[in-house]
Amino acid sequence: EMSSGNLNCSSSQELTRKYQHVVYAVVYTLILLFGLLGNVLALWMFRAYAKETKKAVMFMKNLAVADLLQVLSLPMRIYYYLYDSWPFGQPLCVISFYLKYVNMYASIYFLVCISVRRCELIMRPLKYNSPRRKGDLLMCVAGWLLVCPCCLAFPLLRTTEQNSNSTDRAASKSVCFAELPMRDIGAPAAGVLLIAAELLGFIVPLILVLACTCLTAGSLRKQTGGAFPDLGEKRRALRMVLSCAVVFLFCFAPYHITMPLDFLVKAKILRDCSTRDLILRSHTVTLCLASLNCSLDPLMYYFTTEEFWRRLSKAELPDGTAFSRRLSCISGE
């Protein structure tokens, strides 16, 4: 009975692995197509309008760079999940694995910065009326210096060493990404890392984004006058902050619910076959949602940033009109 149970468990794990590979290959291909186009176009537009706006463009630029980093690593991921093989060497595997988490937590950081910045411009416009705040640049640098070292914990928790005595698939075939074996670091250390990732990487940022959303929404009920933003400006700010909250909740909340459970499965603490399969299949979906932010962030820029609409709808019309007027004056018509 034991051998039959082990056989059934092994069979279900293989089916789950095939399910994961199909889902990842399809979703990452779509993200690659839309994310590459969207973020390249976003960076081009931010470059054109960087001098015209003070509304968190610096943070949006860095968010687009973070998204582009992950998008550029997707072709190798897609190859791996399509062909069930990793021919690119273990260093590239680790780097690609690492970039996934850098993108996720850099995105969370910059979404919080965008929300806070837009909320501050509405709540305290006189303090934040400079179009070029050096503080924004320093916050971006600080964000990268915080996220990049902290995310090293994720690849360091995995091992690329092959154990010849093991019957695990990782021992018989080169694997990458989520299929890399976990290191045995002990329950206390694992607990500390999980709590830190959940608390600092998700719960605190979530509280900040929701607080900014509530404050910005509340400002709509206050009368405007003098140097304070008008109602239209407040509504545009609310659209931006709400978009950050939606992307945050849709992409990152489900992942951070299943992440601790997935860790318990990978660390072989949860051993029941049906429970393992359910968690792994659920985590596959939530990981895809977390990756989807690469494609959703550009949509957030386009639908909430006035400069994007102006450039897309008028397409250099003001410059063309001015040129025509100059030409008329020169020709005397």
UniProtKB/TrEMBL annotation:
Give the bilayer topology.
Answer: Multi-pass membrane protein
**Residue ranges of the G-protein coupled receptors family 1 profile domain?**
38-301
Q: Which domain of life is it from?
A: Eukaryota
Membrane-crossing segments per the record: 22-44, 64-83, 95-116, 137-157, 189-216, 237-257
- Provide a GO biological process annotation: phospholipase C-activating G protein-coupled receptor signaling pathway
In terms of SUPFAM superfamilies, this protein maps to: Family A G protein-coupled receptor-like (SSF81321)
- Pfam families of this UniProt entry? 7tm_1 (PF00001)
- Matching PROSITE patterns: G_PROTEIN_RECEP_F1_2
Q: Which residues form a coiled coil?
A: none
| UniProt cross-references to InterPro entries, sorted A to Z | GPCR_Rhodpsn, GPCR_Rhodpsn_7TM
- A cellular component term, taken from the record's GO annotations: plasma membrane
Primary location: membrane
Q: GO MF annotations for this entry?
A: G protein-coupled receptor activity
* Full protein name: G protein-coupled receptor 174
Starting at the broadest rank, the lineage of the source organism is:
Eukaryota, Metazoa, Chordata, Craniata, Vertebrata
